[in-house]
Batch of 4 targets.
Target 1
Amino acid sequence: MIEVTKSASFEEVANNVKQNWKLIAKRYIPSDVETNVYTFKDISNGLGFNFKLPHENKHHFKVEVRLSLDQLKPQSTQTLQSKLLKEVGKQIIYVVGNYQIDEAYDPAFTKKHHYGYRQLEALHQDEDIMLDSAQAMVLGAKFSEFNQSADAKYDFLAPFNDNQIDLIKAVYSNLIKKFNLIANVISFGGFSTSVSNSKYLVATLKFQRIGGSKSFTINIFSNQVRKFAEKFAEHGMGEEQAIYFIIRTYLSKAVKEFSTNENLAPNLELDKESYIDMIADFPKQYFKLFE
């Protein structure tokens, strides 16, 4: 991971931002949206992010974000990538939102911009594309699990369907029974509008052994499930394998990070040994869990 320090020069920051942005764009920006990062030095030093929209030739709306050097430097607990995800995502939402407010409340909006039905339809498609990406970036800044596997090809904001929710519950329940863990309630969530309509984008699962002190929280996202389900379908496996793979991958990573701590209290040392043994017993394929 490419990072910057608080004492880094503008040129160092610019180079690191551009390198990190390549990774972000690959995950979060649809292939038909072109992006360009440029430096500016006017009132302050900073970097700009241009987005060439798929239907830009049909309307006048352009998405451009400018961040100063101070906005680009991450806080002590942040990575540069999470800082970029949060700041660029927030600014895109602001830019698109302001344009949508103009359309909603300015009676002369369509006349001023010479927009007819086709132009407005193209505009709304491009606005939706950018809002989906921007909200996904903000989500990726908050959840490392989402950021590591986010993929613009699989509709960031499409919620879990009923079958996927049932499968998440079933896979979790079977893991709890298999390894004799505490059965916690699964938390389903998303953005406020989606949750109010019972459309969930994330499921939060907690794993803790009975009598243990250490627990692990794993987040599963609808974007992840669709992505990995397609990959496993190529090998004749269903969505339950995709869900199991996501849980296994991120729980294994969390246990590994926990187990590298050499200064654990005696009760946590017992947890450490138990969780390491548990992960070692996780088969690669879900159906083998029942053998």
Target 2
Amino acid sequence: MTDRPDASQIWMGPLVAVAHDGMSRPRIGIAGISIESSTFSPHISGDEAFTVRTGAELLAYYPFLERGRPLRDAAEWIPLTHGRSLPGGAVAPTTYLRMKEAIIEGISAHGPFDGFFFDIHGAMSVVGMQDAEADLASAVRDALGPDTLISASMDLHGNVSRELLDEVDLITCYRMAPHEDWLNTKERAAHHLLDRLRGAGGTDPLRRRPYKAWVPVPVLLPGEKTSTRLDPAKRIYAQVPDVEALPGVVDAAIWVGYAWADEPRCQAAVVVTGDERGTIAREAEKLARLYWNAREDFAFVGPAASLGDALDRALADGAARPYVISDSGDNPTAGGAGDVSWTLGELLARPDLTDGARTVIYASVFDPGAVAEAVAAGTGAAVELSVGGRVDAGPRGPVALGGEIVSITEGDDDAGTQVVVRAGSVYAIVTERRKPFHHLDDFRMLGLEPESADVVIVKIGYLEPELYALAADWTLALTPGGVDQDLLRLGHRHLAPGVVPFDTSVPDPDLTPAVSRRGEEDHA
């Protein structure tokens, strides 16, 4: 494994002392919507996709705001409403409007606020909209008024349009992919907000707002090519905390952008915030140029191959066990529908997997109808099921899965009821609802032991930490689906001009930062 920072060691240090005329206990609202949405998936994320937290439940979502913690005691936190979903397809307009209206109504009912913690992902697509986060941020700003400081926390796979940037005062994102620092990032966003309200930068309302140096970088790559476990992303992201530590700098952030949405805002971006205009402009351009200059160096985080080649490697005599394969094209944590059945069909068609001599675990396909049939048949029964391909038919549609029901497990918060069907050597997991399989206990609860399997195939891209540790060897299989890693075959049509690798006609883009502060005229 490659050495990388331990997220548990990332911390902000003490809050700044309250300045004269600073706010010792400001009122801070909390709200947002978080989802990553593939516009290439036919899946629609409706009300059922979102977990909506309000009040005490929302406050408890943030461990750094527990009673007795410094941030909790430094402000009066007013949790409004937050919707969070597993990545999926674009959000249904009625679902988005319902959550948006709940946020605005909460601001009206519980305001005014001195500050606002705006917890978003940055890659939410809504059917019929081009920049959903900017629309939400604009509505939040209108409801809060011009003087409330807004601090946005985002995923590094989000998108930073100028329209979004202009509505917030502070903005940051994760620095690790996989996202082991996701909570640290939210804490940093809240910490910076409190520092500014307590007087960092000055107690005048305008001076509380830092300058923002923003550079869109015309590169759009999948997360599986930009993992911070490996160079060049590892090397580039290592510069971010060094920039943040410079005098006059509040925060520095690099966004990879979201590759599976077809919108003009989808590209990489750099934002450095602070009080020294010259410093933040210089450092933003430096980070942007590091990213741009490395654009040809980004490679898949692991060995990549077709599914057939990946299976040949995994099943070869002498292959390391367990061998993990990423079924990357239908990864539900990137926005895949989760029911593409192509890979399962390929497994069932292989002659070397029909005799039951091996253990090949496949996670997973969601199909509530197939699960209901299996439950009716019962554990140990022989069944003939038609599985998957109902939301995203992909290249295959439903697959015939005949075999023995090994286990039926009910009550999972994400998956609902889960069944395991053995067909020869293949142990196929079929779930009632979409679920990612990131933890070993996800398998163990079904009666499967991933450590003793020959091959474990998971709908995922780069491996999450427990799978990464499990894998004696692994391959990233380039499979079809709504989050296909071969971006050029997806058919983007609405990206900004010059975004690599879709358009290589601009060999030397202008990476001069736009520097602005809310309340002042923008400067180039």
Target 3
Amino acid sequence: MKKLILILSFLTLNLTFSQSTTKLSVIESAEYKDKVKSTDILAIHTSNEGLTGIVRSSKKHILFDVFNTSLEKVFSHVVDSHKKERYVGDLFYGDEIKFFTVYTPKHNIREVNCHVFNLKTKSYKKVKVFEVTVAKSKFLFPSKDNRQTSFAISPDGNYIAISTDNIKKNINSYTIRLLKASNLEIVFQKSYQEHKERFLEPNDLSVDDNGTVFALGKLFIKGKKQKKKGDANYEFVLNKVTKDSNDELKVSLDEEHIKSLTISNVDNKLHLLGFYSEKNVSRIKGGCNFIIDKENFSVTSKRTYQLPTEVYEDLYGYRKANKKKKKELSSFYIDYVISDTNGNTYILAEEFYITQQYVSTGMNGGYWTTTYHYDDILILKFNAQGELDWGRSIFKRATSPSYNAFLKNDELHVVLNSGKNLTEKKDGRTKASKGWFESSALYDFVYSSNGDVSYDKIQNNKGKTFYLPYYGTFSNNKFIMMSSARKKKQFMILE
């Protein structure tokens, strides 16, 4: 996500304060030109001291940049990368970005490396973490959409957990490695969930300050296909892995179908949060929460909640809400799980699907076009007791990842680009999308602690810099996002 010329001061002429209705202050940096062309942002993080680090990739390089509190670029480092090396995840704590890649020197060799980039000292080093031999064409990590389920760092930053899978030829096998974050040395390595026939789909990974690793996954009973009707063909399994033990806890389902669960830590308990359906995993009837006692390692509570009426009113209007409530939503994927200091947890998911259309060119035949849809947003808030507090949704249409979310002063902010003016429907809905001939605008949807929403415009984009909320980072009560330009870059700060 860039050579900035910016001094963060009210006296400088290089700063522009955007005219807006947002409650947050809006600051834009001066424009700068990037020496290396790259639009692929792989990681962006801001330290407690206000240093922002960005990791990007180009065709043959990995690029590391550091920006100071005024968002001036103060350091840049370019590393050669191999075409057989791919990014698999990143972690951030203190001043360091740990950027993990897998290199395949031979068809059956996988080398996991960690690029350690310190924002404060501006130092860089590459560490070979481990190397394994795998069956041909096997992958150590899940697909790119689920790669962050394989890495976790303890709250105190002392331990890193890495989960890998499918490294044996005729058996499903999964391995946990616990590392010291300071030197990346392996504390222990332990296999779990070895089965000849049963396949595990990783869901989430967590490690505490004692070095205890919790690995959550969906274990299929037969094969690895989700049944569209009838009983679920899987069960959720939570493994508690230490140097001396490996305990397994099965999280039983009744008649629910659950696509995936994510881990939230609240008061020494694990909350396994997600969405459930009564039909199949691609649909949503409501939210669910399995509460796990970490010490006794047992399920202490299981709760399901139907989606509140407000969710359907936001999507379909008050006239159709009750009728639509009898049906289930579909094709939503969890993007963000955000917890506040009071133990509340917010889950945000976006509707995603793909369509294809055949375009005829006459005598010469035709071609297929593929459209990616990033549409409605679903928001649920669970309180510290694990109960569903409220639910809302955003009625929108987009063809690329378009939003980001953060908590500030007990309010949830959802930042996204939409049409210049939000469409107010007669049925009470507010539609966030851009018309064919309409210019766009950057908005901040602000949800209070009780779920009330205000629609605050940050700026009209016409004639101004277009920013990408999706590639943003929130730290020290500031949200930083960068522009979409390929060469000339700019930042916006919301605080």
Target 4
Amino acid sequence: MDFLNYENADTLSIDTLALEESLKEERNREITGLHSLSKKVSNLHTSVLYYRNPKTKTGSVCYEVWKTLVKKVGGTPNGWRDLGISLGIKQEDLDYIMNSVQEEPVDVILKLYRLNEKATLDKIVDAFVKLKRYDILKALEDPLCNLSHCFNNKDDSGYHSNSKSTDGQIEIISLKNVSDDLPPVFNKNFVVAKNDRNKPHFPKPKIETTNEEFKNEKPILFLTFTEDGFPTALNIQEYVENWTDFDEVAVITLNDKKEEVYQNPEKFIREYFEKADFIVPIITPGYLQEIRSNNPNTPSTTDNLDFKYVNFIYSLIVNYYIHATGCLNKKVRTVLPQNFDREVLTRISMYPDLMPWTYETKFDEQFKAFLKLKYS
């Protein structure tokens, strides 16, 4: 049986070689095109990625580039660290981000990099070229071209300013005002002891500097809990709804404020941490286990925002207790669930920042007393 016809074997071999050469040429053209992205954004400062206005084309395009960077780099193991090293971020800063920062590390790298007045987007493109991350560059190709078109063609302009680079050859386009929401340790005016730099640090909440304690128009209770504390959280909300001693007491949980929280979780939490009359941790075995693990960089797959940000809120409690009040607990009032685990009583003694505590069954009596004292 004639399985194969070898009569045209040489021709087949030549055709295959030609196909391979064609594919290589096409690949080289594609890579050359990706390299050229650097020139298109060489006059755009990284700060432009943080222009937010969904009603404008520029706002949408800026967000698209930022989102693509965060998703593509963040979806790669250690991708944020490789990018940080390529952009010249200090090793001690990278270690700090890994060990002590709750936020998305790619976003922190971008925010840290943008502090440099020469932090143009072409250097980010060049970093990916050096890393041979053409997959990321391919994903960025259209968004970056759109970004270049928006700014360099002055479309939708008026929200950026031009300033000459230090070499006087090009003008760098950057945002006029960019909010500095980096962790305080990255603030150039923030002083930290050298030996403390590699230790875990947490964002320090803002403290009122006036002599009189700030009072809200209405009392605010900010609950924080893990999954096994959820029933108690629901009960507390129901208790407060039935109060007649106080009008319009606000009980804040993150899941009830999803739309606001999603816009900027850390900012929302810090704001309400300050505004709340009392932070109310619900102490359960799950809560103590979560704060004991104390690893804010471990990805959380939960859809419940209250469970997801327990560690972040506890970090604010620690700093408030130690730095703001000199170990006087004026803000935190913990609650033990009705059917609590007896072992919790022993374990809670290890956390002085969570004292004093009360029982769910005495919630009405205790918290009314706290609030009457503050609002009398």
